[in-house]
Write a structure and sequence with these properties.
Layout: H1 2-18, E1 23-25, H2 32-37, E2 40-41, H3 46-52, E3 59-60, E4 69-75, H4 80-97, H5 100-103, E5 106-113, H6 117-126, E6 133-136, E7 153-159, E8 165-172, H7 178-189
Parallel strand pairs: 4-5, 5-6
Antiparallel strand pairs: 1-8, 2-3, 4-7, 7-8
Helix pairs in contact: 4-7
Length: about 190
């Protein structure tokens, strides 16, 4: 009797952990058509604009970016997990950029959920983020998201030749191992 109670509690705990929102999650909670039509504030940095392939416009959409795939990180300056994960995310970016076949296809972009331009800049400097970050202080991203936004969330978006977005992959929470994470992104890009 005691053994079956312990086993039942263990199984219940596993379901709670699996369903807690960490790890790979369904991308169906994101409306890709709306996501593709959202306007974001362009970064001020010429290097960031060049990396993203943006002209000198104040706003941009994901279809304006250079690259067939966009890897989005939804973060918040106030999110302790985002802060702890910043070095790991920076490592994942480096791994993506160090492979020429990936660097030409994928652009990484951080979106500060509820963060002002000032807050995004503080986060960038404090955690030495090497990829572009943009503010979303009005929470425009919420329009495309059918659940509460949790940070960090990573979303791989494909932009087709018509400029339409489709969501290939979503991961909520810690990455833990940047190499395994990059492998998962590559598999999602390849349709595996």
């Amino acid at each position: 009797m005691r053994y079956s109670i312990i086993l039942s509690l263990f199984v219940a705990l596993i379901f709670v952990v699996i369903g807690s929102g960490s790890g790979i999650a369904s991308q169906s909670d994101i409306d890709a058509a709306i996501l593709g039509k959202l306007d974001f504030q362009a970064p001020d940095s010429p290097a960031d604009r060049s990396y993203l392939g943006l002209a000198n416009k104040p706003l941009f959409r994901l279809a304006d970016l250079k690259g067939k795939f966009i890897l989005l990180e939804l973060f918040s300056m106030y999110c302790p997990i985002c802060q702890a994960e910043a070095p790991v995310v920076n490592s994942a970016f480096k791994l993506l950029n160090d492979k020429p076949e990936l660097a030409s296809k994928v652009r990484m972009l951080g979106i500060g959920a509820g963060n002002t331009p000032f807050e995004v800049e503080v986060y960038r400097k404090k955690y030495q983020v090497p990829f572009p970050l943009v503010p979303d202080d009005k929470m425009a991203f919420r329009q495309a998201y059918h659940e509460e936004i949790r940070t960090p969330t990573f979303i791989l978006v494909r932009i087709d030749e018509r400029g339409e977005a489709s969501v290939l992959f979503r991961h909520i929470g810690r990455i833990k191992d940047p190499a395994l994470y990059v492998d998962a992104v590559v598999k999602a890009m390849d349709g595996r």
